[in-house]
Amino acid sequence: MHCHYCDREAAFAAESDGVRVGLCEDHFRERLDELADSDALEQLREQVDVDRAE
Ligand SMILES: [Zn+2]
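^ inputs. structure came back:
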């Protein structure tokens, strides 16, 4: 899976509105900042934990 925002290999997978997208380290951190005040952050963290455990 590649990053949704650039061509790098995705380090994380996030789910937003039922759509699963890959994110590289840089873009993952960018999205975390944007999502910091929303409920989506909890969902994102849970998804990351699952993916990194594989
Ligand atoms: Zn990226």
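The mean pLDDT is 77. Residues 40-52 form the longest helix (13 residues).
thumbs up if we can close this ticket
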